[in-house]
Amino acid sequence: MRYSYYPGCTLKTRAKELDRYARLSAVALGAELEELPEWQCCGAVYPLAKDEIATRLSAVRALMSARDEGRTLVTVCSACHNVLKQTNEALKADANLRMKVNNYLDPEVPYAGEARAIHYLELLRDEIGFGEVKKRVANPLKGRRIAGYYGCLLLRPSAVMALDDPENPRVLEDFIRALGAEPVAYGRRNECCGAYVTLEDRAQAEKSARKIVQSAADAGAETIVTACPLCLYNLKNSAGGLPVRYITELLAEALGIAEGA
Amino acid sequence: MNNENLRDLVVEISGANPRKCMRCGKCSGTCPAYAEMEYRPHRIVAMVEKGDIEPLMRSQSLYRCLACMACVERCPRSVEPAKLVEAVRLLVIRGQGQNHMSPDDIPQKLDAELPQQAIVAALRKYGK
Ligand code: SF4
Ligand code: SF4
Q1: Which pTM value belongs to this model?
Q2: Helix crossing, A16-28 with A247-255: angle to 10°?
Q3: Distance from CA of B104 to the nearest CA of A (A)
Q4: Is the ipTM of this complex over 0.90?
């Protein structure tokens, strides 16, 4: 099966492993991710103001391009996916926004949210199936105690993201189980890592991140996994002491395709 | 601008309705920036409703919000406090010369690991 793929800026620079292992693992699982021919930065945060138009356009262009290719759009960065999905749902729901956006972009076929935007975890869960993933695992991560970190962007707002139960999610735990490892239950898995506030007040962000890492460590985790480069950065820098890795690094390791493994 | 006009502007920019608030305080109880905020989310909602926008515009609380959407998710009345915080912040930074952070501030904040996403997000939230 072929999918359109939106990598995002950070995956081309600081988060190359998140990107590389997403692609390699998809191939190993029989899914082909084809990068959109042209794409721009999604803007990293979804604009919460109703009257922001320009800041939503790059996401609309990516969605429109996937629609024109007739494929589902897959994104692995939680932040990019959040922006793309929220933009898409807003275009479906808000006629005024739709009108302004189409007036501005003037596409051949007006865009009204026809694309289907999914996160890489949804690709694994709903398209490939965790059962199938489990069958392809060549190197089960036996005995490894792993804490899945959701953060905010995969889950909220849940009425729009619709990826999982916002207070009691399980997709990361099911993913970890499919790789043969043991998911660790801990309280702060869906609380905020400190996000961009690290640039405004590092101490505030570190405090948020430290509580999360502490919560995972107290529950006996040896590693935390995330799909977001900024979460990874904040959690790693919080001096919490646990290694933090991308979901796709772990996936590639379990599939036996990680380099040097 | 008078208080009512400012309130109407915030409501319009945000698309949120502070009148639905029942003052339960759940938004503030769940807010990860609670300790760093002078005005907490439930208070911000009440101040917007009253048209008390100017003190909010001067407050550092606007730059403490993480846009984590916990308040939006957990508010029993669907008030969406984060949208009101963002609207008040925009009322400030959309003013000429009123960016809270600009590209010139970034180099001194860089380190080798900082993801690009953080820079773009901060410039979006704190500037225009
Ligand atoms: S959670 Fe909602 S209803 Fe309760 S105080 Fe906050 S905004 Fe008001
Ligand atoms: S979105 Fe902002 S105000 Fe709402 S809970 Fe998160 S940090 Fe607090």
Answers
A1: 0.96
A2: 40
A3: 13
A4: yes
- Quote the distance between the C-alpha of residue A2 and its chain's center: 19
Q: Are strands A32-35 and A117-119 parallel, antiparallel or unpaired?
A: unpaired
Tens-place pLDDT, residues A84-126? 999 999 999 999 999 999 999 999 999 999 999 999 999 999 9
Is the separation of the CB atoms in A194 and A150 below 8 Å?
A: no
Q: How far is it, in rounded angstroms, from Cα A161 to Cα A182? A: 26
B88 and B110 assigned to the same domain? no
Residue B105 CB partners (closer than 8 Å, separation 6+): none
Structural domain boundaries, residue B25: 3-97
Give the model confidence (pLDDT) of B10-31 as tens digits.
999 999 999 999 999 999 999 9
User: Tokens 């479906």 correspond to what residue?
Assistant: A92
CA-based nearest residue to A58, from A83, A33, A79 = A83
Total domain count for chain B? 2
Examine the domain organization and report whether B33 and B63 are in the same domain: yes
Q: How far is the CA of B20 from the centre of ligand 1 (A)?
A: 8
pLDDT tens profile B94-126? 999 999 999 999 999 999 899 999 999 999 999
What 3-state DSSP class applies to A133? helix
For an interface test with A, the pick among B27, B110, B117 (most A C-beta atoms closer than 10 Å) comes out as: B117
Cα A152 from chain centroid? 10
Hey, what CATH class is A137-255 in?
alpha beta
Secondary structure class of A137 (helix, strand, coil): coil
Which token pair is A162?
A: 């619709």
> Would you call A149 helix, strand, or coil by DSSP?
coil
Task: List chain A domain ranges.
Answer: 2-119, 137-255
For residue B48, how far is its CA from the centre of ligand 1 (angstroms)? Answer: 13
- Please identify which residue in the block is written with the tokens 């008040």: B88
Contact B73 A158 (CB under 8 A): yes
Tokens of B59: 């407050």
Cis peptide before A157 (omega within 30 of 0): yes
d(CA B35, CA B68): 15
For the domain covering A2-119, report its CATH number: 1.20.1050.140
Is residue B29 domain-shared with residue B64, that is, in the same domain? yes
